Amino acid sequence: MKIVSPVVGELDVASDRIINFPAGMPGFENCQRFTLLHMESAAPRLFLLQSLDDLDVAFTVTTPDFLGLNYEFPLSDDEVNTLQLERSEDVSVLLIMRRNDEAANNEAPVSANLMAPLVLNTHARRGLQKVIGRVDTEVTLRAVA
């Protein structure tokens, strides 16, 4: 599938690189097919989650460990079924990053959405956005060397 992303230009996306989000994401319910892109490097830290249904929709994402987070939360039976999840080693978690162009001196210019992580089944190439309604999620910070 050929696309022209406003962010990265023309791409050829193989069918095995498409991640299906059956319910879309809150506010982007019509965007159900995405591909995950990264810069050519040995260990990419930031990724672009590009919608294939609306090319104007793309999210910068990263893994929690890049931010020094140990991030744990439960998945419901419905979420496990939506992901078609059979093995825990097939789970990957990504956080949507947001640039704050109007950040004051004491605010970070970039923030991560910890209350709505993306959960992917890397084997079945399915995903969902887990909206966490309570703050009782366990988040552990560690210093990154």
Structural class: mainly beta
In this structure, how is the largest beta sheet organized?
A: 8 strands, antiparallel
Helicity, as a percent range: under 10%
CATH level 3 topology: BH3618-like
Q: What is the CA–CA distance across the termini?
A: 40 Å
Number of helical regions: 1
Radius of gyration: 16 Å
**How many DSSP-defined strands?**
12
Low-pLDDT windows of residues: none
Count of discrete domains? 1
Element pattern in H and E: EEEEEEEHEEEEE
Determine the strand fraction and express it as a percent band: 35-45%
Q: Supply the CATH superfamily name.
A: BH3618-like
Shape: globular
Give the C-level CATH assignment.
Mainly Beta
Question: What is the residue-averaged pLDDT?
Answer: 86
> What is the CATH architecture annotation?
Roll
What does this structure look like?
The chain has a single domain, classed as Roll (BH3618-like), CATH 2.30.290. It contains one helix and twelve strands. The protein has one helix spanning 77-83, and strands spanning 2-5, 9-12, 18-20, 33-38, 46-51, 58-62, 69-72, 91-99, 110-112, 118-121, 126-129, 138-141. Helices cover 5% and strands 39% of the residues. The strands form three sheets. Strands 3, 4, 5, 6, 8, 9, 10 and 11 form an eight-stranded antiparallel β-sheet that branches. Strand 5 (46-51) and strand 6 (58-62) form a beta hairpin. The model has no long low-confidence stretch (mean pLDDT 86). By secondary structure, it is mostly beta strands.
